[in-house]
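Question:
Write out your own:
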Amino acid sequence: MNKQGLPVNYLILAFILIGSALLMSHNISQPWVGIVETDGALFSQIAHNYLRYGIWNLHFGQATTPMPVTDLAQLHYYQHHPALLPLLTAGSFALFGESEAAARGLPIALTLGSIALLFFISRRIYDESLALLATGIFATLPAILFIGRKPGYEAPTLFFILLTLGCYLNYRESNRSIYLVGLFVSLGA
């Protein structure tokens, strides 16, 4: 413990999270150029259409049509992935405005959440020093730093997988129904 009573391991975890955030947010306002270059544009267009036409009016359908239409029957829809990422992106757009940074900030935030979840899950299974080592390695993997900033479905998927595992471990140890509900909600997400 340091003089303020905060465990040193939490300071190290904060350092890992801040370092990862800085690395992943570099050039956050620039268009995504990497693997599957169209993901950011596709999911952002769907999010834009949610805001343009209304989520309820689209019945949660993922409309990809870039031009405004007068009849919703003229819209074309994307059906390869569930709608959670465009819905979350639409929420980010509603809060921060439509921009590349708002679209890429969401996967970065979820990747940072995955890093924190990995620490807390590893700490439950092993100990804090091994959890910090695993978290540090995970947070600095080039694949995590690169794909974790991609405006695609990979970051939300990893986050909800780890959240499901964390809820399961908590439910198994405490048998509290709140963790069972969290398990099914995160599994469904």
Observations:
- The beta strands are 62-63, 77-78.
- The first strand starts at residue 62 and ends at 63.
